[in-house]
Design a protein that fits this description.
- By secondary structure, the chain is α+β, with helices and mostly antiparallel strands.
- Among the domains are: 298 residues, D-Amino Acid Oxidase, Chain A, domain 2; 111 residues, Aminomethyltransferase beta-barrel domains (Alpha-Beta Plaits, 2-Layer Sandwich), CATH 3.30.70.
- A hairpin with a 2-residue loop joins strand 10 and strand 11.
- It starts with 5 loop residues before the first strand and ends with a helix.
- The structure holds flavin-adenine dinucleotide.
- The site of flavin-adenine dinucleotide has 40 residues, from helix 1, strand 3, strand 14, strand 19 and helix 8.
Length: 800
């Protein structure tokens, strides 16, 4: 492709970053259009107070923030005054330790401070009110409009056109591709259009029929008059930017006054269609009138924490609009339906330069190597997750929860229930404790299994790991290894790939050799062109031209759709089907009498179609828990019958229903990786311990060439650790005092009687026997690298 012509809609901090990054890579046929004046357009960037707190539970978001800081410093658009997050409750203090752990894991320097040290850093603080703090020396204040200006200036110097006061009215498409952007001042031809329209995003995306799951919400920002403690200050800011998450507040200085941002008020969503135009708006389109009543509590909490404000007044304020999504993460990528229409939406100033870089790499190179974007891809959502009601409810909830302490297993409260498997009524009868996965109600354990606890000594983990947990989890795990258990696997994404070109297509898309006999099942990977893992999949050949692919999520479907030739059909069959895993040493005793399939002849990693009682089924002999058994699929209408048939027959064999808690424990004992947690786009199969799933000699496939180089340069490894205490994931790992990696998945292994944690470590520290430590809140947990898998390395259970 010759260098394409690009139109960027929106000259906010995101559009400007993208223009700069694209032009730096030689793409200079770029036009940035904005309905407002440039650089202060009237969008969210024009009034953002610009606090950049880098720490985030997401590694990607933290890395994007770090890049933004580095770039803004270089552009002289950043006051690097540091950041300070304070705790006024013991729970928050523990959370600050957790955040210190994330920072350390993702490579950002942070320091935990005593109350006195907090007050020494920020003299307005009442040390008596805080229990401690987290100091991030590289945080600070971004000058968003200045950064817009600096990036657009650089881009202009390279040939980029910036058109202020051009309102985009439509995006014209031809043959499923973008062709031009229609503005109130004429048409601009385009091969690629990138929507960086912020809160207007849904309106612009709709021009090409795209439903962008984003909610603009009003957020209160107030400014005080002079604060005595700041009197005489002649620099804009000198103290760290400050967060008081217990009261949903943040603060920044502006000379001798203070800016106060507040997330504690009622959610105030607005439709993108109701935002006023540049000329209609009194101040600017993204600014609504301040509602003082909503700010009352914020002001009294401010005065509590910062006594010097007691004699000051709130002098001005805004209800400023910015974007929220259903999962707190941005929306990046290309429309699934209209080629050349891209979005970079729901991005904070904090991450803007990182997002600009990521988008530029993606557009220019076809993939992003600097950041792992699997959490940010706009195509990640299940169909129900873009329903307007869902988007609004989740957007509002996420606004309220911005500063809340969220447990890794905490399910969304509303809207629930959304998706229920056919087994749901029986699971309710067994008093399942449901969590939520991609909208599915998924049992974590079953209270009806409480009698299994008798005679077992299930260790209780520490307070944090004991949330969304019951000792029954341990009993279910052990009972699976002893007898037989039924696991609802319906939430697992299933795709049907069929058609004359199906074999060639899957050979090209996956790392495995799937051109095997009918009934074969192949565990393999989808790679990106740079050799990074996009997903791990099981490909079952059910016919000459028919495959069932066990996948991880909607991105797999999207990836396949983008690559499929005309003679291949890809269909998401998840919703119309269901799956129960029947696993354990007694699984064959339970299932064989019910089916016409010879289960002894059906070897490990083979599949067959047949019947269980009256129920037509597809059975795949696979097991993530490392026990004999099958994933048994049928259509949703027959699901309940399938469950009941197995359950009834299982009584004689002591069958239990078991939940996801047990599943995770058993999975880790067997060393089975989970995409998105253990490995992501940034990792290659060799580092992740999945080299066995790559058949380099089968012919060409996407990512093969890049892999050949990566194979020889493995410097880090996904490593199995044994611990005495259960951790939860994302904790830093130390070699002495040196942070060397981070935990991915973790659980207690109820068979082996030890805590298990998988972690990314330098290859030099990944040999069995190596002692390391895991940073867990305010403690260090000893860990030792173990040979894997921890359970049944000879695979006698699975092949038995
Ligand atoms: C009160 C408040 C405080 C905030 N504080 C912080 C903070 O401290 N730290 C932080 O990181 N973030 C903060 N944010 C969030 C941050 O401001 C935004 O997320 C960010 O500025 C969004 O940048 P953007 O480029 O995506 O959007 P915008 O800056 O809104 O840019 C989008 C542009 O698209 C243009 N546009 C839209 N539709 C059209 C059209 N049809 N034709 C032509 N042009 C169009 C608009 O005119 C606008 O200029 C805050 C937000 C608010 C409201």
């Amino acid at each position: 492709m010759t260098v394409p012509s690009v139109v960027i809609i929106g000259a906010g901090v995101v559009g400007a970053a993208l223009a700069d990054e694209l032009s730096a890579r030689g793409w200079t046929d770029v036009t940035v259009v904005d309905q407002g004046d440039v650089p202060a357009t009237g969008g969210s960037s024009s009034h953002a107070p610009g606090l950049v707190f880098q720490i985030n539970g997401s590694k990607t978001m933290t890395e994007m923030a770090r890049y933004t800081v580095e770039k803004f410093v270089e552009l002289d658009s950043f006051h690097q005054v540091g950041g300070l997050e304070v705790a006024t409750t013991p729970k928050r203090l523990a959370e600050l330790h957790r955040r210190h752990g994330w920072a350390t894991a993702w490579g950002i320097e942070t320091h935990l401070l005593t109350p006195e040290e907090c007050a020494a850093r920020h003299s307005l603080l009442d040390a008596g009110k805080v229990l401690g703090g987290l100091h991030i020396p590289t945080d600070g204040l971004a000058k968003a409009v200045k950064a817009v200006d600096a990036q657009l200036t650089r881009a202009r110097e390279r040939g980029v056109r910036v058109l202020a006061r051009h309102e985009v009215l439509d995006v014209r498409t031809e043959g499923g591709r973008v062709a031009a952007v229609v503005t109130d001042q004429g048409e601009i031809p385009a091969d690629i259009v990138v929507c960086c329209a912020g809160i207007w995003g849904p309106r612009v995306a709709r021009m090409v029929g795209m439903n962008l799951p984003l909610t603009p919400l009003a957020h209160q920002l107030a400014w005080t008059g002079q604060v005595p403690g700041l009197a005489g200050q002649t620099v804009e800011c000198s103290r760290p930017i400050l967060r008081h998450q217990d009261a949903d507040l943040y603060f920044r200085e502006r000379f001798d006054t203070l800016g106060i941002g507040y997330y504690g008020h009622r959610p105030m969503p607005i439709s993108a269609d109701d935002i006023l135009s540049v000329d209609e708006a009194e101040v600017m389109p993204s600014v609504l009138t301040f509602t003082p009543d909503d700010f009352a509590e914020a002001w009294s909490e401010t005065q509590e924490l910062l006594p010097s404000t007691r004699s000051a007044k709130v002098e001005e304020g805004i209800n400023g609009l910015f974007s929220f999504t259903t999962d707190h993460l941005p929306l990046m990528g290309e429309s699934p339906d209209v080629k050349g229409f891209w979005v970079a939406e729901a991005v904070w100033v904090t991450h803007s330069a990182g997002v600009g870089r990521a988008m530029a790499e993606w557009l220019v190179d076809g993939h992003c190597t600097t950041f792992d974007l699997h959490e940010c891809d706009v195509n990640r959502f299940e169909p129900h997750q873009v329903a307007p009601d869902y988007v609004l409810a989740r957007g509002c909830q996420n606004y309220v929860e911005v500063y809340d302490i969220i447990h890794p297993l905490q399910p969304m409260r509303e809207p629930r229930p959304l998706r229920t498997s056919p087994f749901h009524p029986r699971q309710q009868e067994l008093s399942a404790a449901f969590l939520e996965a991609s909208g599915w109600e998924r049992p974590q354990w079953y209270a009806a299994n409480a009698p299994l606890l008798s005679g077992r000594d299930i260790p209780t983990p520490g307070d944090w790991a004991a949330r969304y947990w019951s000792p029954i989890v341990g009993a279910e795990a052990q009972a699976t290894r002893e007898g037989v258990a039924m696991y609802d696997m319906t939430a697992l994404k299933r795709l049907e790939v069929s058609g004359p070109g199906a074999v060639a297509f899957l050979q090209r898309l996956t790392t495995g050799d799937v051109d095997k006999s009918i009934g074969s099942v192949t565990y393999c990977l989808l790679l990106d062109h740079d050799g990074g893992i996009r997903s791990d999949v099981t490909v079952a050949r059910l016919g000459a031209q028919e495959f069932q692919v066990g996948a991880n999520g909607n991105l797999d479907l999207d990836w396949m759709e983008r690559h499929r030739p005309a003679d291949v059909f890809v269909r998401d069959i998840t919703a119309g089907t269901c799956c129960v895993g029947v696993w354990g040493p007694k699984a064959r005793d339970l299932v064989q009498p019910l089916t016409d399939i010879d289960l002894t002849a059906l070897r490990y990693f083979r599949g067959a179609r047949g019947y269980i009682g009256n129920v037509p089924v597809t059975m795949l002999r696979l097991s993530y828990v490392g026990e004999l058994g099958w994933e048994i699929y049928t259509t949703s209408d027959m699901g309940l019958k399938l469950w009941d048939t197995l359950w009834e027959a299982g009584r004689d064999h002591g069958v239990i229903a078991a939940g996801r808690g047990a599943f995770t424990s058993l999975r880790l004992e067997k060393g089975y990786r989970s995409f998105g947690t253990d490995m992501t786009f940034e990792h290659d199969p060799y580092e992740a311990g999945l080299g066995f799933a790559v058949k380099l000699d089968k012919g060409d496939f996407i990512g093969r060439e890049a892999l050949l180089a990566r194979k020889e340069s493995v410097t880090r490894r996904l490593t199995c650790l044994l611990t005495d205490e259960v951790v939860m994931g994302k904790e830093p790992v130390y070699d002495g005092e040196r942070p060397v990696g981070y935990v991915t998945s973790a659980a207690y292994g109820y068979t082996i009687g030890k805590g298990v944690a998988y972690a990314w470590l330098p290859a030099s520290l990944a040999d069995p026997g190596q002692a390391v430590q895991i940073g867990y809140f305010d403690r260090r947990v000893d860990a030792v690298v173990a040979e894997e898998p921890l359970f049944d390395p000879a695979m006698t259970r699975l092949r038995g």
